């Protein structure tokens, strides 16, 4: 089987498989997760548990192919990533998605990953720190949509402060909540954003696509060592929309 590189909330990508696996429509969220486990895409038990708890139906329009493993369109020309792409993100960051961890989701889109991240980090660590997820997007309407989606079944995570959402410039992150144990970036930067690197905790990890919007891109895992130095490795070749600086004005 051949699996395409992960895509973001911003852009649908083509996935091919000899068995046309990703065209399969599953009946429920649990059936979808079971299939992802069987295919070896979900490797972490905690990742599987989080995806079972966060129902894709709460984050897409009614009547869509809810549990098919492919991207679906959102409003404002955006997409919600295919479930196997969400699984990749959760698995790659899973060691830094534990109770008490602090997470930044840059390009929160539909809000799905914010909810899944929150399921993995909620609660306290040994130091008594509460897990927290900060979701940001530079499109105000997408932040609104994320909040509405999360209110459906995950309102407690908003009310108790486990998740907070903000309109913000993805290149600048969200320094008020830094440092972060894990940073997930859902759009391609031409180079590693210095401010995001600065907001990463020593010992933390960032998942980010890097490269030109019209050329080759690589999905990078960036680890910040105890001494503050960075170590990066390419995971997959990808093609993402660019990480656009600034904040878009709200549509009238």
Compact overview of the structure:
The protein is α/β, with parallel strands linked by helices.
Order of helices and strands: HHEEHEHEHHEEHEEE
Contiguous helical run count: 7
Strand order of the largest sheet: 5-4-3-6-7-8-9
Number of strands: 9
Radius of gyration over alpha carbons? 17 Å
**Cα distance spanning the termini:** 46 Å
Structural class: alpha/beta
| Residues in helix, % | 25-40%
Mean pLDDT: 87
Question: Could you explain the architecture of this structure?
Answer:
The chain is an alpha/beta fold. The protein contains 7 helices and 9 strands. The strands form 2 sheets. A 7-stranded mixed beta sheet has the order 5-4-3-6-7-8-9. The chain starts with 28 loop residues before the first helix and ends in a 14-residue tail after the last strand.
Characteristics:
252 residues, alpha/beta, seven-stranded mixed sheet, two-stranded antiparallel sheet, 9 strands, globular, disordered N terminus
SSE blueprint and pairings:
Layout: H1 29-38, H2 45-53, E1 72-73, E2 79-80, H3 83-93, E3 102-106, H4 112-121, E4 132-137, H5 140-153, H6 155-159, E5 163-167, E6 180-185, H7 194-199, E7 200-211, E8 217-224, E9 230-238
Parallel strand pairs: 3-4, 3-6, 4-5, 6-7
Antiparallel strand pairs: 1-2, 7-8, 8-9
């Amino acid at each position: 089987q051949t699996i395409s590189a992960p895509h973001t909330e911003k852009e649908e990508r083509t996935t091919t498989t000899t068995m046309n696996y990703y065209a399969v429509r599953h009946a429920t969220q649990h059936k979808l997760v079971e299939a992802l486990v069987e295919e070896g895409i979900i490797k972490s038990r905690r990742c599987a548990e989080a995806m079972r708890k966060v129902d894709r139906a709460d984050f897409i329009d009614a009547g869509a192919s809810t549990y098919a493993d492919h991207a679906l369109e959102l409003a404002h020309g955006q997409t919600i990533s295919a479930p196997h792409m969400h699984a990749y993100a959760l698995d790659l960051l899973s060691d830094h998605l534990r109770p008490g961890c602090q997470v930044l989701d840059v390009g929160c889109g539909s809000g799905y990953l914010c909810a899944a991240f929150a399921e993995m980090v909620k609660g306290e660590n040994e130091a008594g720190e509460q897990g927290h997820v900060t979701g940001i997007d530079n499109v105000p309407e997408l932040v609104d949509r994320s909040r509405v989606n999360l209110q459906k079944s995950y309102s407690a995570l908003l009310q108790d402060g486990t998740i907070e959402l903000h309109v913000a410039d993805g290149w600048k992150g969200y320094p008020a909540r830094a440092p972060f144990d894990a940073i997930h970036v859902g759009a391609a930067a031409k180079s590693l954003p210095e401010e995001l690197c600065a907001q990463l905790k020593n010992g933390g990890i960032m998942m980010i696509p890097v490269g030109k919007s019209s050329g080759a891109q690589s999905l990078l895992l960036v680890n910040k060592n105890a001494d503050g130095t960075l170590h990066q490795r390419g995971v997959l070749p990808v093609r993402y929309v660019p990480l656009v600086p600034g904040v878009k004005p709200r549509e009238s």
